[in-house]
Structure formats: structure tokens, C-alpha cells
Amino acid sequence: MADSIAVKAGRFSSVKEILDFAIAEERQAGKFYTDLAQEMKSQAIREVFEDFAKEELGHKAKLEAVKRGKSAIKPESVRSLGVAGRLVDVEPKADMSYTDVLNLTMKKEKAA
């Protein structure tokens, strides 16, 4: 089924391509959060970004297990709160507040 959806979208021709794309996206997200963590002045905010990076790398590991045939993707029902669409754009900066961190990450996750 995933193959037929990807072919219709014209972007992917196989499940492997979809997984490779998703793995690369998770790697990029992990790097994004790791890089931001290094720029933060606040230790608490730095740790928040480091935790986000670990989550993204955990997603990457799960996708790699699926690709190796060691795991299956189980659909989950996730309810959207619809908050990300109402947030303002926030530029990363070294002295971000926790509110700005959440704003930035929700917008990034929605875009993904």
C-alpha cells in the first residue's frame, strides 16, 4: 500500500526509498536540535534541545529497524490539538525562552 501511495505521489518508487527519506529526515532533525543545543546560553534550554535530538535519533533507529525487517510500523492514533497552525515563526537564538523553544519545535514538527 505504501508503495502505491508513493508512486501516485510521484516522489518515491519503493518502500525502501520512503524509509531512506524518513531516516535522513530524522538524522537531519537530530542534527538541527544538537546544533541548537550547543548555541544555547541556558543549561536548561540546552538540555531540552538535547532531549529533542535524542528523540529524533530514536525515531531514526526505529525506522532503520523497520528497513532491516526487524520491526514493523504500527499505526497509532494521534490526536492533533491544532496548536502548531496558530503559532508565530520564531528564529533560533542563544537566549531562547522555553516558550520560544516549544513554538519553534512545534512548527518544525508540523512542517515535517
Number of helices: 4
Report how far the terminal alpha carbons are from each other.
21 Å
Sheet-strand content, in percent, reads under 5%
Q: From the helix content, strand content and strand pairing, which structural class follows?
A: mainly alpha
Task: Explain the overall architecture.
The chain has 112 residues and is mainly alpha-helical. The protein has one domain (2-111). Helices cover 64% and strands 0% of the residues. The chain has four helices and no strands. The protein has helices at 2-9, 15-39, 43-67, 98-111. Helix 2 runs antiparallel to helix 3. The longest helix is centred in the N-terminal third of the chain and has 25 residues, at 15-39. It is globular. 12% of the residues are buried. Mean pLDDT is 83; it is low at 1-8.
Give keywords.
single chain; 112 residues; mainly alpha; globular; disordered N terminus
Layout: helices, strands, pairs:
Layout: H1 2-9, H2 15-39, H3 43-67, H4 98-111
Short description:
With about 110 residues, the protein is mostly helical.
